[in-house]
Amino acid sequence: MVEEGVTLEYDERGIAVLTLNRPERRNALSLELIAVLLRCLDELDENRAVRVIVLASTGTVFSSGHDLKEIANPRDFEHEQIFSLCIDLVTRLQRFRVPVIAEVQGPAVAAGCQLVASCDLAVASEQALFSTPGVRIGLFCTTPMVPLSRTIGPKRALEMLYTGKAIDARTAERWGLVNYVVSLDQLRSTTWELALQIAQVSPAAIKSGKQAFFSELDLSYCDAYQDARLRMVHDAKTPDAIEGVDAFLSKRKPQWPSGSSEEPSCIGEG
Question: Are 205 and 96 in contact (CB under 8 A)?
Answer without folding.
Answer: no
